[in-house]
């Protein structure tokens, strides 16, 4: 008899964002005239930068001539894109990262899930709480957890609460953990980590033989010059950290799809035989066997992010969303909400009023203000009573949404 | 201590195609003037169809206006693409497949690897020998096999030899197997399966509770009107088969990346509790959690395959490659080779002369004719002594390569 992966049966309800979509659809079918504004899912709304579009169109035209047609590319991505990323995003910040350590992919969601393929099943895994649900769900699916309890916490995972009390940066655990997921600037809380905080994690990982999965998808939104953009700005990270980055948020690629992972060649783990194994070679093999690279056309679009025009246009996009974030912080504070984040990240994290649960506040915001946000409890048990507002929308929509919220709650 | 996935250490040498690339690079570095012609990796060479390019450019321009900008799309693909596929590729052939059963992806290599995520670890797995290496390697990586023997066969897998004696279509096994990989038109042998042969597999699978993974990446190359293009042309397939398809070969998307899997909602497997589980819901969950959909721009390009112009242009491409295949068959036969395939598939499968091993013939062909092919043994132990020649190249290159081969071997 065929055996299915029964770990899937442990997964709680729907993945957060499909559940939000379901509730919004139900409401809008019942209220077809309600002018809904979406500040929920962290999806960008502004046009793809001109430089990227021009590059995509040029590459598409090149696909029309035999001489410049491109078939299968390198599974790890084209050298010209990996070189630009290494130079601009890492070496320019003093990070000792080589182009060959960069793997181009079609998304950080894919990468943070797929990376588990190269690890075994006996690792102790630490996640923050709240957390980006994909880290947890992919571990559940891989059989690295027990069942969920009534709060949605899975047995076997080590949850590191991030709360206002610790500035939404997890306390280094006293117990030993093997794989640690860190996301800074943080989704969902918008918090950032100082050099000292990251150094403490790197020191912990190196002394315990742990690996850090560092999700830097939002690094472009950092405004404070003292905050690191990459884990590799921290001495010692090359022997304990894998980093994930994306063009989704800085260059508006959520629907265009391009991202990258960084696996330093110095990252080694002992096999049970005692042999040292380079994670880079396992990840290379994984990608060559289960992936066929990102569309040539799209990689050319991503490359254009590093042109002078692309740099200016992406900076413009980031600044635009950060002005939204600033407005959200200001108006929600005025309306009496306790707000966090939004200064180095496109997310504002708020405490729900009147002890409403996260989903109660979601429904109230939807039905009274026609505004969609994301319930904090969808990110973990410790997110209960919190709520995420995203800065990804037009200025007009953000202002309208804020005016409705201030009117309803202020 | 961090545990790695030690199953990776069982993998033999490099994946086939990187190994070919390595040998070709070594040769061409030593012989920079040698005019190498590549008939090895099954990569298309002719321009992307005009209809697809036009659609990609139009979609890219739309990404430049806020109103028509697209961010995250449905992880399973846009409805307009899924509908067209369901109508043209399935319903038009009498297959009862609904658009909601189609999942758009970035490649069949990815899909055939990722599908294992939703299955357990106790299944008996059958592959043909020779076989597309990804089926085997992804099972090794998932821990579904033992170690490899000296012939490269992995313990625990059931190998079904395909040889001239059985027309390169595997004999239905006498033992019980749970998951069965079938690829028709076949990569690497170019063989096809009749309705009767597929019916025998479907009957076997339904009576044993097995699942067939049917890889139809080359269906567009079928010229014989009696040969099925889809497993769903066979009564009973909706309760036992998953199909994989790709735009790589018919529309030249190897570097553009778009493919699809079909998981009928009627496909159910019993969990250990006895509960019936719909594989469609597991695969939906898998894709929603570990994948973010194919680029909007690229999906528009794939959609254009179904326009009248796109249909005509892709038919033109397929016919062009099949004329190459015809030439290859003809000239190699004249040169005294025993040849198979190439009539309903873009691959010709030949017996090496003088009892040369597959890699010996590879090296000889490279060094004497400067032609790259694919060693049959790279596809499995029973492929030893065979060799694959691909029809994917320009007419001029194919003719030049054949002239050299006829001169050297004829």
Automatic annotation (TrEMBL), chains A, B:
GO terms for molecular function: L,L-diaminopimelate aminotransferase activity; pyridoxal phosphate binding. One of its GO terms (biological process) is lysine biosynthetic process via diaminopimelate, diaminopimelate-aminotransferase pathway. Substrate binds at residues 15, 42, 109, 132, 187, 292, 388. InterPro entries: Aminotransferase_I/II_large, DapL/ALD1, PyrdxlP-dep_Trfase, PyrdxlP-dep_Trfase_major, PyrdxlP-dep_Trfase_small. The modification N6-(pyridoxal phosphate)lysine is found at residue 249. Pyridoxal 5'-phosphate binds at residues 72, 108-109, 132, 187, 218, 246-248, 257, 292. Keywords: Aminotransferase, Pyridoxal phosphate, Transferase. It holds the Pfam family Aminotran_1_2. Residues 35-405 form the Aminotransferase class I/classII large domain. Pathway: Amino-acid biosynthesis; L-lysine biosynthesis via DAP pathway; LL-2,6-diaminopimelate from (S)-tetrahydrodipicolinate (aminotransferase route): step 1/1. It catalyses: (2S,6S)-2,6-diaminopimelate + 2-oxoglutarate = (S)-2,3,4,5-tetrahydrodipicolinate + L-glutamate + H2O + H(+). Its cofactor is pyridoxal 5'-phosphate. It is an enzyme of class 2 (transferase). The keyword Glycosyltransferase does not apply. Its EC number is 2.6.1.83. HAMAP family: DapL_aminotrans_1. NCBIfam families: DAPAT_plant. Belongs to the class-I pyridoxal-phosphate-dependent aminotransferase family. LL-diaminopimelate aminotransferase subfamily. Homodimer. This is LL-diaminopimelate aminotransferase. It comes from Pseudocalidococcus azoricus BACA0444. The gene is dapL.
